[in-house]
Structure formats: structure tokens, C-alpha cells
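Help needed: design a sequence for this.
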């Protein structure tokens, strides 16, 4: 007998699906489909209206401006991280997402960096310790997301998954975890299953989309069912979020996402192996 299980909490980004609808309606539709909801810049949203949807919010952007390495940027990041925590409390959102630097409207770094110096690494780790302390005080987790440099975010410091993992390891706090984005990692590094094994102790959540195109699983080169099985076998039970566009119909995209992350096991083979 074949048994199908959905071992992960599944979420989807309201920023990238149902784009023909007002934002609150997007949130409602994703929640109606049985998914948790992720949002980006909270400052452009009606927070009271979002809270009234009673959707389960999985993640939101955890800052508005700033960066990890220069004094003015650090102050801005910490100030807006505190404001973000206030909004997270209103939405009961457990995770707040960060990047290696502030990103503009098109996803490009506000202040591009060509070379990350040793001093910048040390300063970034110190800033993230301060961020983690804010998270601990509020009882919420900040996550540091890896990005890709080749397609979407050229010039972003600390962008590779190896970079974010190194910083999270250095801080070593349960209030700072990785947001492991496998779409970005495939473009930048590949070897995704091994990457999930390396990062597993430090993962706060996982985001997915296919390559190329950044659409739902099954539209590109990543075999997500194999990754789902590997995650399940490794014991990961956290959030997996679709942060991708719908190739065509958003409902179809969510169906494909759910199917890719529903694991199957032949129980007759499992029993005979005992």
C-alpha cells in the first residue's frame, strides 16, 4: 500500500499569486486553500485588515531600510526591525526575514557591494547578534535569506547560501535562523539536497520556486519531489513556502506545489524490510 503524507507546513507568498486581486483578497484566497501566508514590505499594507482575515502568517519582511555593515545602515536596520516586531505581534507572525543589505523596488541592492571584506563579515555577524537579541526579547525569530547574484540580485553582499549559513552559525542563536531559498540556491550553487543536509540545524524555513522562471514546481529543472523526500527523511518538519509566480493559474500552481511536497511511501516495502 502507498501512503501519502504532507509532513511540512506549507505556505505561499501573497506578493506573487492572485495578482489580479486586492492584497487582502489574495491573503484570504491562499488561506482558503489551506496554506499559511507570507508577505513582504508590511509598511504598504493595511495591517488591521490583514489581521482581520484570521489567516496564519508564516513570515514577513523584518526591516524596511538599512544594512548589516555600516553605522547608519545598522541603525536603520535595527530601528525598522523593532517596528517590524510590533507589526509581527499584530499578525502573530513568528518569523521576520532579512537580507544581506536593503533591496530596492526591483530587488536590487540599495548599496551594491563588489567585495565583502573581513571587517564587513565581522560587523555583519555583530549586527545579527543584536538582531537576534531583539528577536529573543520579542519571542520571534529573524531569518536571513540567501539570494542569487546572477539573475535577480546582483551586487548583494552575503547572498550565497554558504554566506548566510556561515553568519547564522557564527551568531549561533535560536532567534536567528536561515531562510533557505532553494530557487536562489539552484542558480547560485546547486547541489540542493546536500545543501539542505548541511543547513538543516540552522533552517528557520525553506522557500521554493522552479528554475528558470521562478514559477511553481514542475515548470523547470528542479525535481522538488526528490528534495521533499530528502527533507522528510532528514526529519525536517518546518515550513516550506512557495515564493514564486504562477506559470498560468494560481490555483493550479498551488496544487502543483502541494503535490511536490506530499511525500509517498510504499508501506508494504517498509514493513517487509523490518
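Sure. Designed sequence:
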Amino acid at each position: 500500500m502507498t501512503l501519502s503524507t504532507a509532513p511540512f507546513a506549507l505556505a505561499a507568498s501573497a506578493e506573487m499569486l492572485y495578482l489580479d486581486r486586492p492584497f487582502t483578497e489574495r491573503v484570504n484566497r491562499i488561506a482558503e486553500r489551506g496554506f499559511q501566508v507570507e508577505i513582504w514590505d508590511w509598511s504598504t499594507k493595511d495591517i488591521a485588515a490583514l489581521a482581520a482575515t484570521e489567516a496564519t502568517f508564516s513570515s514577513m519582511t523584518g526591516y524596511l531600510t538599512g544594512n548589516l555593515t555600516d553605522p547608519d545602515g545598522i541603525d536603520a536596520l535595527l530601528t525598522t526591525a523593532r517596528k517590524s516586531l510590533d507589526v509581527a505581534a499584530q499578525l502573530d507572525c513568528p518569523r521576520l526575514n532579512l537580507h544581506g543589505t536593503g533591496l530596492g523596488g526591483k530587488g536590487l541592492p540599495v548599496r551594491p557591494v563588489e567585495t565583502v571584506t573581513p571587517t564587513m563579515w565581522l560587523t555583519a555577524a555583530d549586527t545579527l547578534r543584536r538582531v537576534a537579541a531583539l528577536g529573543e526579547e520579542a519571542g520571534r525569530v529573524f531569518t536571513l535569506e540567501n539570494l542569487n547574484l546572477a539573475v535577480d540580485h546582483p551586487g548583494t553582499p552575503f547572498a550565497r547560501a554558504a554566506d548566510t549559513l556561515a553568519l547564522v552559525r557564527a551568531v549561533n542563536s535560536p532567534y536567528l535562523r536561515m531562510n533557505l531559498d532553494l530557487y536562489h540556491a539552484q542558480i547560485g550553487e546547486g547541489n540542493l539536497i546536500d545543501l539542505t543536509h548541511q543547513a538543516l540545524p540552522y533552517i528557520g524555513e525553506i522557500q521554493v520556486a522552479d528554475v528558470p522562471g521562478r514559477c511553481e514546481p514542475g515548470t523547470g529543472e528542479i525535481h522538488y519531489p526528490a528534495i521533499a523526500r530528502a527533507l522528510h527523511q532528514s526529519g525536517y518538519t518546518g515550513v516550506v513556502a512557495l515564493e514564486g509566480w504562477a506559470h498560468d493559474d494560481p490555483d493550479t500552481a498551488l496544487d502543483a506545489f502541494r503535490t511536490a511536497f506530499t511525500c509517498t511511501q510504499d508501506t508494504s516495502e517498509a514493513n517487509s524490510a523490518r
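The CA atoms of residues 1 and 271 lie 10 Å apart.
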